[in-house]
Write a structure and sequence with these properties.
The complex is a heterodimer.
Chain A: H1 2-10, H2 12-39, H3 58-64, H4 67-99, H5 107-119, H6 122-133, H7 139-146, H8 158-186, H9 190-198, H10 203-214, H11 216-231, H12 235-240, H13 252-261, H14 265-295
Helix pairs in contact in A: 2-14, 3-14, 4-8, 4-11, 5-8, 6-8, 8-11, 9-10, 11-14, 13-14
Chain B: H1 2-23, E1 25-30, H2 33-50, E2 55-60, H3 63-75, E3 82-86, H4 87-97, H5 104-108, H6 118-123, E4 125-126, E5 129-130, E6 133-145, H7 146-151, H8 160-172, E7 184-186, H9 193-206, H10 225-238, H11 253-261, E8 265-271, H12 275-278, E9 288-291, E10 304-313, H13 321-330, H14 334-343, H15 359-366, E11 371-373, H16 377-380, H17 384-400, H18 406-426
Parallel strand pairs in B: 1-2, 1-3, 7-8, 10-11
Antiparallel strand pairs in B: 3-10, 4-5, 6-8, 6-9, 6-10
């Protein structure tokens, strides 16, 4: 105890500077989460009153007995799994392409083209995508029509709506993941590749055994970030499908929002808490796995 | 020391001057945007003639924020003097706070109120408390593009058969003359529970039905023969008839307005509050006719639907409650109601000057067409939003995968709704 206090006192200037940010984080980051979890244990009709009625785990029992929530959870997992693989795979491919000496001239342009969507306001981007997919006046179907392809159902059927959201999100997020990969590629130790080359390793072997292991930090960061991103998928649904058609894109975040809109605060925050626990659990597991691998 | 005394004296004078005027300021929170701000400004000027020195200050918030702010303010004793919104939103505030005043005694003191109907007062009452004083009836009529009607050689549709014929021509006969097949019979919406059921409400009430889903006794009505006939045609409008844009299943209010204002839908809902904007040169430029909703059977009557009621409510913990009550009473006066009609396009009085309004606004203001009031099930059944959400889900599943025969689908939906209503009631 004395030692801890001595350490704190010794680093007092550091803690003094950190204090305001710690307070802000607790006030605006941690406290709302705690409040939200508290609301999930209250009866909706009294949830926002100064003295709410606490109902224990009743809201959790209610959401796990709701087939729509379970379907929504499953849908969220499925979408996340596909979206993470597609986004990370695409971003990695693009980063490798940009890193290639063959693309020295067009590299900047490609980097710009991939990164611009990241800084574009998401709502504006998704509105444009919605218009592109529109079956009566959208550019995608106009193009399909011109080249003689059958019409793309876009946002009007379940499976195509999922694909449509995936493409729009890929457009918006992949540039960020690409940048992380590109940065990791740029700082890798090229001497190792030269040594492997001298030892007779093929191009594939150099990639598999020399370059890829060095990209592990980027893979871990991107995977965790993408998992968090796609488990919480919300804005694209609000703008493009509103959970439809026929619930096909009703992910957990949006479902919780719908219940919130109906004044079912207890169940809505119970859903949000479940999602929060899943996000935390998945993120920590991946970090742990990454650390364990690094320690070997 | 002398300097400090002077400062204290000056501060005292300033405070003395400021306090009385602060006590005479009433604050109203609403979600009516710029038109609402202008309306309350106009009413404030009129009210000051009766109560010199009193200022009414209104603040407009987006609806979602309005909810959060009002609930937290009422629960933390930092409430405004008055809140203004649709009745169903005030019901939610009352559910969450239990701090909305019963305005029966306040309305009881108003002598000039014969224009308020039983339906108006019924909707203002929730669990035996009058939670709002009705100020603006929300009227909704059926609108049709006038130039399109002329182009396809039709007149305003009176019956559902007329409407279907016109819708087919709007879809197939290039009514906007741009050479493209990009127009639709109707501009509707479906994405959220209130979107789809709201439109079904309008078709149902417009032909004289009294309930869309559930009656006040708690009986599910959708499979009663007249209801089922309307519901079946309604569902076909979204599916086999192909009268709406293919993306309508994902359309909410914003997208529906884009279809209307973008000149792609020929028939649509017109709310009294829409007219001012749609009369504008850069929007529809007045190229639409407003009338009654089509009737589904020859022996029925067409109606314009009263689809809601906006009103003023007073929190129990309002800082200037007595003055707020005076202002709430004043909002039913002719001057305040005229300001409401001029700025918002709606009121509850029938004796207002409508000469300055467009023919389409006058249609609502004069209220000459038969009016039918929405049944406001939220005010009777607290579980209604949950039931409506389930009904919406079921109907959307049908629209997404239309059955060959809608009759068994409607019967099955009715059975499911009965089971759910019983379950929710027992909760």
């Amino acid at each position: 105890m004395t030692t801890t206090l001595e350490t704190v006192w010794h680093n007092r200037i550091f803690y003094l500077f950190v204090l305001p940010f710690a307070v802000l984080t607790i006030l605006f980051g941690v406290w709302p989460i705690v409040l939200s979890i508290m609301v999930s244990f209250t009866a909706s009709a009294t949830a926002l009153r100064p003295n709410p009625t606490y109902v224990g785990f009743a809201n959790y029992a209610a959401i796990f007995a709701d087939p729509a929530f379970l379907a929504s959870l499953l849908r969220t997992f499925l979408y996340t799994a596909v979206a993470v693989v597609v986004n990370i795979g695409f971003a990695f491919g693009m980063a490798v392409l940009i890193d290639s000496p063959l693309l020295r001239r067009g590299g900047l342009l490609l980097r710009l083209a991939l990164f611009l969507p990241v800084v574009t306001p998401d709502v504006a981007g998704y509105v444009v995508w919605r218009w592109l997919y529109d079956r009566s006046f959208g550019a995608i179907n106009a193009l399909f029509d011109t080249v003689g392809l059958p019409a793309f159902a876009g946002l009007t059927t379940g499976p195509t709506a999922m694909i449509s959201l995936l493409i729009a999100e890929l457009w918006h997020h992949a540039g960020f993941y690409m940048l992380i990969f590109h940065a990791n590629l740029a700082i890798r130790d090229r001497a190792l590749e030269e040594a492997a080359h001298v030892d007779g390793a093929t191009a594939w072997q150099r990639w598999r055994y020399v370059i890829l292991p060095q990209l592990k930090p980027a893979f871990i960061i991107n995977t965790v970030y993408a998992l968090i991103q796609f488990l919480k998928t919300f804005t694209v649904v609000v703008v493009m499908t509103k959970g439809g058609p026929n619930e096909a894109t009703n992910f957990v975040s949006y479902y919780a929002y719908q219940l919130f809109d109906q004044g079912r605060y207890g169940e809505a925050t119970a859903m949000a808490s479940v999602l929060f626990l899943i996000v935390i659990g998945v993120s920590l597991t991946i970090y742990r796995l990454g650390d364990r691998e690094a320690a070997r | 020391m002398r300097f400090l005394k002077r400062i204290a004296a000056a501060a005292g004078i300033v405070m003395a001057g400021a306090l009385p005027s602060a006590a005479q300021t009433l604050t109203v929170w609403h979600d009516l945007g710029d038109n609402g701000l202008k309306w309350f400004e106009a009413m404030s000027a009129e009210f000051a003639k009766q109560r010199p020195g009193v200022t009414v200050k209104s603040l407009s918030y987006p609806t979602d924020q309005w909810f959060g702010r009002v609930i937290s303010a009422l629960n933390t004793d930092s409430a405004p003097d008055l809140i203004y919104n649709n009745y169903e939103r005030v019901i939610r505030i009352q559910d969450q706070t239990g701090k909305v005043s019963d305005l029966k005694p306040v309305l009881g003191k108003v002598t000039d109120k014969a224009f308020l109907t039983d339906d108006d007062l019924k909707v203002a009452t929730y669990k035996d408390r009058q939670i709002i004083i009705p100020i603006q009836r929300v009227q909704m009529g059926f609108g049709v593009r006038k130039s399109w009607l002329d182009k396809v050689g039709e007149t305003f549709p009176e019956t559902w058969e007329d409407a279907k014929r016109v819708a087919g021509k709007f879809r197939d006969n290039d009514p906007d003359g741009n050479g493209k097949a990009d127009t639709f019979g109707f501009a509707l919406e479906a994405a959220k529970p209130r979107d789809l059921i709201h439109i079904l409400d309008l078709f149902s009430f417009g032909t004289g039905l009294r309930h869309t889903l559930i009656d006040p006794a708690g009986n599910i009505t959708i499979d009663e023969p007249r209801h089922a006939a309307v519901l079946e045609e309604f569902l076909k409008t979204y599916t086999s008839y192909k009268f709406v844009a293919p993306d309508t299943i994902n359309h909410s209010f914003t997208e529906m307005y884009q279809v209307i204002e973008g000149g792609r839908g020929g028939m649509f809902r017109v709310g009294d509050w829409n007219v001012k904007k749609w009369d504008g040169e850069k929007v529809l430029n007045g190229d639409f006719v407003v009338g009654k909703w089509p009737k589904f059977a020859a022996d029925e009557t067409n109606y314009v639907v009263i689809g809601g009621m906006r009103g003023i409510a007073i929190p129990e913990n309002a800082p200037n409650k007595a003055l707020a009550q005076d202002f709430a009473q004043f909002m039913l006066s002719k001057a305040a109601q005229q300001a409401s009609l001029d700025n918002i396009g709606a009121a509850v009085r029938g004796d207002l000057d409508v000469a300055a309004l467009s023919p389409r606004s006058q249609y609502f203001a004069k209220a000459e067409a038969p009016l039918i009031a929405y049944d406001f099930p939220e005010a009777v059944h607290p579980f209604y939003p949950e039931l409506e959400a389930a009904f919406h889900k079921k109907l959307l599943s049908g629209i997404a995968k239309p059955p060959a025969d809608w009759k068994p689908f409607i019967a099955e939906t009715a059975r499911e709704m009965r089971e759910l209503a019983a379950k929710l009631k027992a909760k």
